[in-house]
Design brief:
The protein has helices at residues 4-11, 19-29, 33-42, 59-66, 77-89, 122-133, 151-154, 168-181, 206-210, 221-224, 229-247; strands at 16-17, 46-47, 69-73, 93-97, 138-142, 160-163, 185-191, 194-200, 256-261, 266-271. It has 277 residues and is of the alpha/beta class. It has two domains: 15-59, no CATH class; 68-276, Rossmann fold. It has an eight-stranded mixed beta sheet, sandwiched between helices. The protein is globular. The chain starts with a helix and ends in a 6-residue tail after the last strand.
């Protein structure tokens, strides 16, 4: 009797499962695309959509990504690109938290914004986009504002949180919740031609150090604005950090702040710990 594992094994080509076969398997056995993907990866068979990943990561790595859950807090300029890249990378569950709807000033840089989406919830646009781009990924849209009060519930089950916020106060609250939950936080911020990225582990104080001079209000992005390219660059660096953390590979930015000036094309990494000495 044909079963899903046997079907996947027999339809694989060069240890890869073509998209058409995934769709066929889901329909034939009445399962989700996610279930088909997991069965394939468990047997060392790579869904063909990830074939350009395999020079950089193993099938086992791809399975780890699939079984991971990542929270993205904010679904605007940074968040849209982060969600898109995590989904294309193959992270299996993405929790997206944002209370807002799209407005006209979002159109210059926010990936999921369009004239047709004006007035629509950002998290719902993210769900539609991910469902279209990679149906094997589960996206959990939560239309609410992150706070100290609900943070633990919003991040439940996630192994990493990604900061795509535009409020320094909420960023600091996010860092506090991540420390309480014992999960790392990948932080990114943008303003004009500039951006920075760091990773804070539980017990560290990277964000508190970076924003030690902050008193109130938003950051300098209110003065410098945000063109289309800056969020794409910083979001990609944040996703690279997430990938390394999930796979326990490479060198992350713990205790360090990567700063980019796209106007002069200068990239610097500073030791945040030096600021506390």
């Amino acid at each position: 009797m044909d079963t899903l594992p046997i079907f996947v094994r027999d339809r694989a080509e060069a240890q890869m499962l073509p998209w058409q076969r995934q769709v066929e398997a889901a329909g034939r056995f009445g399962v989700t695309m996610a279930q088909v993907e997991e069965v394939a990866l468990e047997r060392g068979i790579l869904p063909a959509r990830y074939q350009r990943n395999r020079k950089a990561m193993t099938v086992s790595d791809q399975l780890t990504l699939f079984r991971s859950s990542v929270a993205v807090i904010g679904c605007g300029g940074l968040g849209g690109y982060i969600v898109e890249e995590l989904a294309r990378l193959g992270v299996g569950r993405i929790v997206v938290v944002d209370p807002d709807v799209f407005e006209e000033h979002n159109l210059n840089r926010q990936l999921f914004s369009s004239p047709a989406n004006l007035g629509h919830a950002k998290v719902e646009a993210a769900l539609k986009r991910v469902t279209m781009v990679n149906p094997a990924v589960t996206l959990v849209p939560i239309r609410t504002a992150f706070s100290l009060e609900n943070g633990s519930d919003l991040l439940a089950g996630c192994s990493i949180a990604v900061d795509a916020l535009d409020s320094i106060q909420v960023r600091l609250e996010l860092a506090e919740v991540c420390t309480a939950l014992g999960i790392p936080l990948v932080h990114g911020a943008i303003a004009g031609w500039f951006g920075h990225v760091t990773t804070q582990f539980p017990g560290d104080d990277a964000l508190q150090t970076i924003y030690r001079s902050w008193k109130s209000g938003k950051g300098v992005e209110e003065t410098l604005g945000n063109p289309s390219f800056t969020p794409a660059v910083i979001a990609s660096l944040e996703v690279a950090e997430v990938c390394k953390l999930l796979l326990h590979q490479g060198t992350n930015l713990r205790g360090r702040q990567l700063i980019i000036d796209l106007l002069s094309m200068d990239v610097n990494i500073i030791d945040i710990r030096d600021a506390n000495r």
